[in-house]
Specification:
Distance between the termini: 40 Å
Number of helices: 6
Oligomer: single chain
Order of helices and strands: HHHHHH
Structural class: mainly alpha
Radius of gyration: 15 Å
Number of strands: 0
Largest sheet: none
């Protein structure tokens, strides 16, 4: 049927998680990083519970939270989450997937010490 939602998106919980993940990224883009961090943390927990840790929605949410942490100056937390997320992305996604490219950029924006190699690996095939 044309215009119908995929079955997964029909449930209110899943639609809410997807909307929250998008809002987290939008808030970071608007410079509202503290609300983005709070929403991102809550949404990441929900994504892990609903989709599992390796689902693309979970990875995208973790990327948004990583960027919020970078912008808040929370380098250690951003590094830990970013590295874990990048490892998961490399297992689950193609090397030039948008999430990998966005995450690599998020980490490089913060110029986190010790992550120079991380940024180089994220944008080329393994």
């Amino acid at each position: 049927m044309s215009g119908a939602s995929p079955p997964l998106i029909r449930t209110p919980l899943v639609a809410g998680v997807l909307a929250a993940a998008a809002l987290t990224l939008a808030l970071v883009g608007l410079g509202e990083v503290e609300p983005a961090r709070a929403l991102g943390e809550d949404t990441l927990q929900r994504c892990r519970r609903v989709f599992g840790p390796d689902h693309t929605t979970t990875l995208w949410t973790a990327t948004g939270l990583t960027l919020a942490l970078v912008r808040l100056g929370q380098a250690e937390l951003a590094r830990a989450l970013g590295q874990d997320t990048l490892q998961r992305c490399r297992r689950m996604l193609r090397p030039n997937h948008a999430i990998i490219l966005y995450l690599t950029r998020a980490v490089s924006i913060g110029h986190l010490p010790g992550d120079d190699a991380l940024g180089d690996r994220g944008s080329r095939p393994l």
